[in-house]
Design goal:
The protein folds into two domains: about 5-45; about 60-245, TIM Barrel, CATH 3.20.20.370. The chain has ten helices and eight strands. It has helices at about 1-25, 30-55, 80-90, 100-105, 110-115, 135-155, 170-175, 190-195, 195-205, 220-235, and strands at about 65-75, 95-100, 120-125, 160, 180, 185, 210-215, 240. The chain binds nickel (II) ion.
Length: about 250
């Protein structure tokens, strides 16, 4: 699979450059010179990646639509970045899943309505991003219920899915909460990188059929990365579905 390999090598290159940058920083090398070096290296690899894709190898471009992937966005909605994301998704005809925080739902009811109107799936992410496995079970259930109630008041539909913050979940919660937990298989680490190209490269190097990708629509770079990921995966023949379509019992 030349294409996947190419992307993987690109990812490796990124890591190597990062290490090199650290070393050069220690040696006190000029930052502009270093920037040119990095751009040349990354640009060179980027062009090679495109050539591989255009070459039409079977792994590079598939148009049979059999590969599915779900983009999921946690912690929103955000009054600037979520709007931009919704516009970008709509332009591309792509549906995603939004795990909303109750406190942000309360602040942005019009945005919640817009997400629902766009045909996206809305899930519960707790009221204040609590680690559900810490603290009183009763309080955690209240946080989830309060959030579900708010979402239902706005959209007319109570969420059926919960994304526990930090992926923290246990048997007690499983028993007490009437929502299905949804985790992820590809972590974009967007909150850490805050760099669209880096986030997109990381996700595109890992993603495969049936993956659920974790992102956050509360950062500008995440929105840029998400749309870059969408464009590339559409080219690779992927179909974007909501997370409920990829859950296996
Ligand atoms: Ni979160």
């Amino acid at each position: 699979m030349p294409f996947r390999q190419a992307v993987w090598e690109l990812e490796m290159e990124g890591t190597m450059i990062k290490e090199a940058r650290k070393l050069l920083a220690v040696w006190g090398v000029d930052a502009v010179l270093l920037g040119v070096l990095i751009c040349t290296a990354l640009g060179g690899r980027g062009r090679w990646e495109e050539r591989e894709a255009d070459a039409g190898g079977e792994a590079a471009v598939r148009t049979d639509g059999e590969k599915s992937v779900a983009l999921t966005f946690d912690d929103g909605p955000h009054q600037i970045y979520t709007w931009r994301l919704l516009d970008g998704l709509q332009e591309r005809g792509v549906k995603a899943t939004f795990f909303l925080m109750g406190a942000n739902v309360r602040e942005n009811p019009d945005l919640v309505l817009e997400i629902a109107a766009g045909g996206h799936l809305i899930g519960n992410h707790g009221y204040r991003h609590e680690d559900m496995t810490k603290g009183e079970l009763e309080g955690m259930c209240e946080s989830i219920e309060k959030t579900s109630k708010l979402i239902q008041e706005i959209t007319g539909k109570a969420p059926e899915y919960v994304r526990p913050p930090y992926g923290s979940w246990n048997d007690d919660l499983e028993e007490a909460v009437d929502l299905t937990p949804v985790f992820w298989s590809v972590d974009s680490l967007d909150w850490k990188y805050q760099d669209a190209d880096q986030i997109a490269r990381r996700v595109l190097a890992q993603v495969d059929d049936g993956d659920i990708i974790l992102m956050h629509d509360i950062f500008s770079a995440s929105v840029d990365a998400a749309l870059e990921i969408v464009d590339t995966l559409l080219d690779r023949g992927y179909t974007f579905v909501t997370a409920d379509e990829l859950l296996v019992d």
